[in-house]
Amino acid sequence: MTFDDLRPGITLPELLIPISASQIVAGAMASHDFEDVHHDKAAAQSKGVPDIFMNILTTNGLVQRFVTDWAGPAARIRRIAIRLGAPNFAGDTMKLSGEVLQVDGAERLAQIRVSGRNGLGEHVAATVTLGWESTWPRR
């Protein structure tokens, strides 16, 4: 995607992400989130949930991957705002979708709305601001 091709209303191709126990544990460990609900099923169940679930940092990374894979190497994330909803449990699938909300030609910025849904409902709602080339520092 080039900046000049952007228009409000453009939709991003959906991305299906199968949620596995290995992915949940690896994401939690990689982000040093040792909360037991992200790696110990019995501990998670003792807290009233059916299984381990994904942490926010893994979700954040998946949202960023979704948007930057679509936008291409010239785009950089300038800002991201994330709100979590239904947990991503092992064995479910998250479907990411997105839409261009705003394009600022002068600043070369675009605002993208992202939604990630699973079998329980909306797992994540995010707004990602991307900048193209001239909006990030060069050295």
What does this structure look like?
The protein contains three helices and five strands; from the N terminus they run βαααββββ. With 139 residues, it is an alpha+beta fold. The relative contact order is 0.23. The model has no long low-confidence stretch (mean pLDDT 94). It is 23% helix and 37% strand. The protein has one domain (3-135): Hotdog Thioesterase (Thiol Ester Dehydrase, Chain A, Roll), CATH 3.10.129.10.
CATH topology (fold) name: Thiol Ester Dehydrase, Chain A
CATH C-level: Alpha Beta
Number of strands: 5
Strand content: 35-45%
Quick overview:
The chain has helices at 21-30, 41-46, 56-71; strands spanning 11-18, 75-84, 93-104, 109-118, 121-132. The chain starts with 10 loop residues before the first strand and ends in a 7-residue tail after the last strand.
